[in-house]
């Protein structure tokens, strides 16, 4: 699925069902009760929350739940841990809550979420079945919509489908079950599933607008944009604002941006404060590169008071692109929630670094990570990157090591650590990281290429390197990085004439100092000295301090 189409599908949100209401964990401190082990841990947990040590608070709440027979303590522990603790802690706390209060549905909701996060698909299904029965007894007209938020947070999207499938099968006449499966299929890139289940939802509930919209989005995901437009236009609600907005988004997916803009501008003529139309038009202008127009639209969106964090994020991005570093930092610092929160804090730290405050940048990430332990991978990686830029490579490496102890299969972390090992000339450690990634993801061209290139460039295992890079090339023949690796490994194998076309194509696709160095060296080896010098001179003007260029030129043409 094209990334921009996926962006369009998620632009307005395919599911309007709210998640379970958990509230702020710090809103209602518990009654500590009689002195004892449980009350001690409750007291320590509250102190930890007040001192902004949420991970410690989660641990203390779990200890309190273990020591107490009060379901309210287990409930409090589960809610705090869901925000600040680990999935394993959350599962234990939720199990304790369900043990003490078997009929408490919120405990079952948390159990479904935590079991799925732990990879216990059957256990998650068991909890979802309990919740579906309860929703039916409560005469909920769309029972599966309330269950969707429990599984959409799972990292493993296929597991989310697997957990929900048996429950949906139990209720073949429930359109909300078909809708839930279609939505999960769309998120997981299972387009055929999304099409079939969304169509089934419409057939079961022809009047349900959201089901009709979801079917249109499934058609978009399948690349059938014209059919999606025809489908929307044929609906009885076609003239309503909601469908007009959906039509605009579908037009964007079909790269008919002029028509989409006209629809959105028409909506804004009728209601200049239409926040959803402003947001969609702002995205359109931003991704089309009409930056100043987008800036004006996102400022208008801020005035509405809706989608504030979205508006601040894109305004910050615009300021950053325009070189307005302090303004960008100010805008990012105002973001207090939503899907862009973590990315905004990372960008804010990088801007602090650019403003000459590296220690403040690192401290900002450390504090934010303590408050948001669920985002420790992204925040830790950013902290390691900043430390590396500051020349603190040992400390940066220690951050990667600690993160990988907790997340051993996090590909981005392992890749970044592998690159750091390369910079430190620790070939064995780099190969261990890249090899681990290639084993985990044998069909990932970037992983194969990283492993193969390191072997080609830093060892004599050139035949092994060639096989890895060849596999990467088959999977992604248009990648400049892989083309460069292919040309370079052929050169290392003593076949420079065969490597030259790959390097020439890589240079044509992406101007990069390393590609220029490799291309020039292969030309030099083939006796085409003047052409090699032309490439190097052209590149050195653009990258005057490039170590790889300077090394290659100094070695071959001193």
Summarize this structure briefly.
Helices cover 75% and strands 0% of the residues.
Structural description of this entry:
- It is a single chain.
- The protein is mainly alpha-helical and 558 residues long.
- Among the domains are: 358-407, no CATH class; 411-556, Serine Threonine Protein Phosphatase 5, Tetratricopeptide repeat (Alpha Horseshoe).
- 75% of the residues lie in helices and 0% in strands.
- It is built from 32 helices and no strands.
- It is globular, with a radius of gyration of 27 Å.
- Residues 14-27 have low confidence and may be disordered.
Oligomeric state? single chain
> How many E strands?
0
Average pLDDT confidence is 90
CATH class of the domain at 411-556: Mainly Alpha
State Rg.
27 Å
CATH homologous group name of the domain at 411-556: Tetratricopeptide repeat domain
Please indicate the percent range of residues in DSSP E strands (runs of 2 or more).
under 5%
Name a few traits of the molecule.
single chain; 558 residues; mainly alpha; Serine Threonine Protein Phosphatase 5, Tetratricopeptide repeat
Secondary-structure map:
Elements: H1 3-11, H2 37-50, H3 54-67, H4 71-84, H5 87-100, H6 105-117, H7 121-137, H8 143-152, H9 157-169, H10 175-187, H11 191-204, H12 209-221, H13 225-234, H14 241-253, H15 257-270, H16 275-287, H17 291-304, H18 308-321, H19 325-333, H20 341-354, H21 358-371, H22 376-389, H23 393-406, H24 411-423, H25 427-440, H26 445-458, H27 462-475, H28 480-492, H29 496-509, H30 513-525, H31 529-542, H32 547-556
Helix pairs in contact: 1-14, 2-3, 3-4, 3-5, 4-5, 5-6, 6-7, 7-9, 8-10, 9-10, 10-11, 10-12, 11-12, 12-13, 12-14, 13-14, 14-15, 14-16, 15-16, 16-17, 17-18, 18-19, 19-20, 20-21, 20-22, 21-22, 22-23, 23-24, 24-25, 25-26, 26-27, 26-28, 27-28, 28-29, 28-30, 29-30, 30-31, 30-32
């Amino acid at each position: 699925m094209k990334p921009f189409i996926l962006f369009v599908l998620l632009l307005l949100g395919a599911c309007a069902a709210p998640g379970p209401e958990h509230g702020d964990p710090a809103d209602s401190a518990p009654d500590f009760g009689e002195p004892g082990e449980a009350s001690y841990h409750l007291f320590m947990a509250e102190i930890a929350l007040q001192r902004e040590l949420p991970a410690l608070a989660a641990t203390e709440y779990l200890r309190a739940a273990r020591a107490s027979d009060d379901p309210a303590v287990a409930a409090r522990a589960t809610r705090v841990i869901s925000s600040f603790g680990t999935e394993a802690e959350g599962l234990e706390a939720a199990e304790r809550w369900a043990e003490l209060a078997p009929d408490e549905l919120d405990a079952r909701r948390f159990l479904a979420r935590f079991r799925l996060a732990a990879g216990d698909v059957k256990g998650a299904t068991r909890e979802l079945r309990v919740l579906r029965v309860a929703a039916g007894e409560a005469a909920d007209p769309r029972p599966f919509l309330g269950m969707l938020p429990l599984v959409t947070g799972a990292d493993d999207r296929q597991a989310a489908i697997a957990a929900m499938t048996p429950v949906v099968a139990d209720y073949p006449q429930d359109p909300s079950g078909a809708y839930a499966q279609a939505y999960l299929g769309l998120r997981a890139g299972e387009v055929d599933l999304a099409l079939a289940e969304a169509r089934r939802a419409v057939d079961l509930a022809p009047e349900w607008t959201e089901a009709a919209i979801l079917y249109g989005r499934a058609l978009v995901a399948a690349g059938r944009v014209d059919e999606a437009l025809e489908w929307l236009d044929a609906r009885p609600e076609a003239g309503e604002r909601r469908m007009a907005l959906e039509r605009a988004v579908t037009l964007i997916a079909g790269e008919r941006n002029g028509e989409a803009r006209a629809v959105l501008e028409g909506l804004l003529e009728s209601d200049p404060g239409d926040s959803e139309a402003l947001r969609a038009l702002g995205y359109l202008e931003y991704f089309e590169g009409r930056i100043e127009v987008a800036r004006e639209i996102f400022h208008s969106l801020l005035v509405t008071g809706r989608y504030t964090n979205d508006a601040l994020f894109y305004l910050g991005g615009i300021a950053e692109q325009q070189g307005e570093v302090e303004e960008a930092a100010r805008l990012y610092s105002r973001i207090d929630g939503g899907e862009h929160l973590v990315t905004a804090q990372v960008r804010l730290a990088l801007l602090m670094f650019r403003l000459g405050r590296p220690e403040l940048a690192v401290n900002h990430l450390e504090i934010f990570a303590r408050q948001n332990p669920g985002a420790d991978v992204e925040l830790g990686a950013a902290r390691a990157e900043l430390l590396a830029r500051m020349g603190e490579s040992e400390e940066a490496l220690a951050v990667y090591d600690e993160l990988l102890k907790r997340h051993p299969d996090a590909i981005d972390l392992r890749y970044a650590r592998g690159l750091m090992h390369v910079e430190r000339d620790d070939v064995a450690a780099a190969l261990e990281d890249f090899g681990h990634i290639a084993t985990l993801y044998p069909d990932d061209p970037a992983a194969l290429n990283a492993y193969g290139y390191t072997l080609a460039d830093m060892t004599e295992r050139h035949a092994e390197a060639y096989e890895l890079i060849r596999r990467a090339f088959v999977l992604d023949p248009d990648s400049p990085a892989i083309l460069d690796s292919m040309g370079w490994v052929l050169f290392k194998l003593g076949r420079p004439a065969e490597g030259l076309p790959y390097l020439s194509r890589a240079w044509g696709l992406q101007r990069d100092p390393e590609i220029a160095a490799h291309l020039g060296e292969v030309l030099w080896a083939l006796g085409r000295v003047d052409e090699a010098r032309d490439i190097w001179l052209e590149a050195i003007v653009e990258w005057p301090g490039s170590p790889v260029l300077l090394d290659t030129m100094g070695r071959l043409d001193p």
